[in-house]
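FORM 7B: Structural annotation worksheet

SECTION A. Query
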Amino acid sequence: MPHATNPKMSKRLQAFMAHIEKNYPLFVGFPASVDFDYEEVLPLFKYLLNNVGDPFVEPLHALHSAEMEREVITFFAELFRAAPDGVWGYVTAGGTEGNLYALYVARELLPEATVFYSDAAHYSIPKNTYILRQQTCVVGTQPNGEMDYANLIEKLRPHQGKPIIIVATVGTTMTEAKDNLKRIKKALQDAGIKKYYIHCDAALAGIPTALQTPHHPFDFADGADSISISGHKFVGSPMACGVVLVKKSNRELVRRPSMYTGSPDITIGGSRNGHAPIFLWCAIQKWGKRGFKKRMEHSMQLAEYAHSELQRIGWQAWRNPQAFTVMLAAPVSELIYKWQLATYDGWSHMICMPGVTKERIDHFIADLDFAERPAPL
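SECTION B. Predicted structure
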């Protein structure tokens, strides 16, 4: 039986579509790839897909995408240099859930541990530690947003002999700075800390960092116990999603019985989005490691171009090495809202994610060129 149309609903949806289409080409201030095309997946939106429980254990129902989810996990485990069959993971609702899961596992492993993270860490870290009732210690940062390792040692020393959880950020929210696991482990050693867990929040820059040379220490081979990434940032997805990976030996700390679903309750969410893994799976099939590297290199070239253009027009700007993110002195509020620029403490940033074009950068630079220059910061 055909559905009756609702004129009021149709008009509302048309207006919303017009709003999105107007603002989509002006989306440069937040980290999300916008060059995806998942037309082949659209027919699946007629169906419920519920990835309940452990993606590596088949549930009792058949309406799920667990097979594709497992392939996504395997791809990223290899990319992040995990030991063969040494890690487990699942597709999350986004980076915040990935961080929550990793901290949950870490708490079960080291229940008395204090969580250390930098003052440039994502806002989900203090939120999640509050939810989990964990003690915390905030570490200072260097001018570029990277963790201050001297300050880390100083704050670790009073905790000598106690367990520690460290959250390293690989791509900070504002400046895309990357904490260095090699230096973090050296700080732990210098401070006499022997029992510790290191989680890498690599939501923004994990995938491109894994593809860059020289290698930046952040992955499982470098000593991470867990890694979380976003799926809608570098990869690109029409819905927010992410991936969390943890060592298999630690996964068992949070396993619960399967009850009536047939699959163990081992994730944060019970029922999980079954369409999101398909988007990530399709992107992996389309791009693969080589294609992702080309996307990364193209975005780096655009970021370098944007930085040079800002300098050309005399606009105060800077950029961390091998970053998509270009920092610029905050323009007038009209341009902040028009171009949807994340802004904090007098600085805005534009992020040259896949899908941002040279033409879009030129349009943005032209708007700035006609605007009043802010006072030097």
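SECTION C. Observations
The radius of gyration is 22 Å. Residues 356 and 373 are 24 Å apart (CA to CA).

SECTION D. Sign-off
Analyst initials: ____
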